[in-house]
Amino acid sequence: MNLGFLGTGHIASSVIEGIFKSKLKIKRIFISPRNKTIAKKLNKRFKKISISKNNQQLIDNSNWVFLSITPKVGHEILKNLNFKKSKKIISFISTINLKDLKKYTKIKNVTRVIPLPFIGMKKGPIIITSSDRSLNFFFSHLGKVFQVKNEKLSNAFWSTSSFMAPYYNLLLSTRNWLVSKGIKGKEAEKYTKELFLALTEDSINKKNLSLKKLVADSQTPGGTNAFVLKRLKKNKFYQTQQKALNEIFKKF
Ligand SMILES: NC(=O)c1ccc[n+]([C@@H]2O[C@H](COP(=O)([O-])OP(=O)(O)OC[C@H]3O[C@@H](n4cnc5c(N)ncnc54)[C@H](OP(=O)(O)O)[C@@H]3O)[C@@H](O)[C@H]2O)c1
Description:
The protein folds into two domains: 2-149, NAD(P)-binding Rossmann-like Domain (Rossmann fold), CATH 3.40.50.720; 163-251, ProC C-terminal domain-like fold (Orthogonal Bundle). Helices cover 53% and strands 13% of the residues. The chain has twelve helices and eight strands. Strand 7 (125-128), helix 6 and strand 8 form a beta-alpha-beta unit. The mean pLDDT is 96.
């Protein structure tokens, strides 16, 4: 099977990296000449990659076409491209809905998928808004697939993906606080990453413990965890998080 990536940016290169680390059997991957630098790098790294002359050639050569362009570019270029009826389209575009994707491409077989950059390590959640078995099979090689019934649900998942920078900022703030107490920057950074990695791994390993139970089990009455949690709640830390999520959700 031939795959095509319309737009060779951040997410396309992560997905491609994941594909080549996986056991998926791919004949060729056609990529856009844009971004030129990324396209050239991928072409140099992986034998099965070909840089197409233009977007139409990429589409014509591919059985599955992955839309990895920004919404603005999508609105501009999709309606001017020809997609044969046999094509399967997988869109990573955050804010172009299925109705518009079908209208622009005149293709029925369109699915919205949300990969995250960790897909390059074959890790992390992947949201698929359809029950397409071949897509499910494909993405199950690249991370943990979550199938959702409709776009509204997928938009809720989309909203939570805006927690990457705030999450890293929580780690940065922890690291900075350690540094303010006299710990060397490198050591503080390493420690913080290990701490948060262990917490996440622990929560995954303790499959039968709900998050609610983990919160309860991680604190003793009057202890330090209980103190910090209470302080954050009092200062509306989590309420602010919920509010920000609601605001993002409304944008979809
Ligand atoms: N990044 C993520 O974590 C993530 C996760 C899930 C979904 N998405 C979605 O995936 C899409 C791409 O995101 P991204 O982060 O990968 O953005 P990005 O790094 O900016 O990639 C977009 C790519 O599109 C190329 N492009 C621009 N105009 C083009 C055209 N006319 N024809 C072909 N390619 C063109 C750009 O090339 P130039 O650099 O030459 O302009 C760039 O390589 C977005 O819709 C985003 O919502 C992103």
